Amino acid sequence: MRYYESLYIVNPNYEQGKLDEVMKTVSEAMSEYGFKIINHFVWGKKRLAYSIQEHKYGSYVLLHFETESSENLDTFERFMVLQKPVLRNQTVVMDEKPKKQSEKSSLSDEKTVKSSDEAKSKDTVKDELKTEAPEAEKEAEAPEAEKEAEEQSDDSEENKEDE
Asked: In this structure, are 65 and 135 located in the same domain?
């Protein structure tokens, strides 16, 4: 069994109803080609890196699917290119089977991951500050100790000269 991930960008001017129609059309084509859909959901509207057909934004849709053979994959790719609402698409092979997830769970997972990453980064910064603080204090003390040593040596030289 081979697993694939397809990400496609739909015209951002489509409302949710039209976006659902596009997703339904893609799902029907997938079943015609013998692919089994694992996940199919909207990521959301995001800014594009560059304009595509004069659009600065696009609605991203993520699709995970599996198949026994990859013989209809080229036909599916051609189908996606010929769809007017689809601005761009890309399909890649996955190493392992993706987990089944819904839109809501993926959004909450992203928030959880972001908050845990932020917490980790704050802890890391605190730890770095703790380790840097003693070193900074030592460095600040080092010039003072050197000055004291120089003063003592100067005093001892002056004492020798006086004698």
From this structure: no
Q: Are 9 and 88 in contact (CB under 8 A)?
A: yes
Maximum Cα–Cα distance across the chain: 107
Q: Write down the pTM of the prediction.
A: 0.61
Is 68 in a helix, a strand, or coil? Answer: coil
Q: How far is CA 16 from each of CA 11, 12, 58, 60, 141, rounded to the nearest angstrom? A: 11, 10, 13, 12, 65
Instruction: List, in sequence order, every residue forming a beta bridge with 55; answer none if it has no partner.
Output: 52
For helices 73-82 and 16-32, the axis angle rounded to 10 degrees is: 150
pLDDT in tens, 22-49: 999 999 999 999 999 999 999 999 999 9
Tell me the CA distances in angstroms from 54 to 20, 51, 83, 154, one per residue in order: 23, 5, 17, 77
Q: How far are the Cα atoms of 6, 28, 46, 68, 140 from residue 73, in angstroms, in the given order?
A: 11, 15, 27, 11, 66
- Taking the C-alpha atoms of residue 49 and residue 96, their distance in angstroms, rounded to an integer, is 29
CATH number at residue 56: 3.30.70.60
pLDDT by residue (tens digit) across 131-140?
555 555 555 5
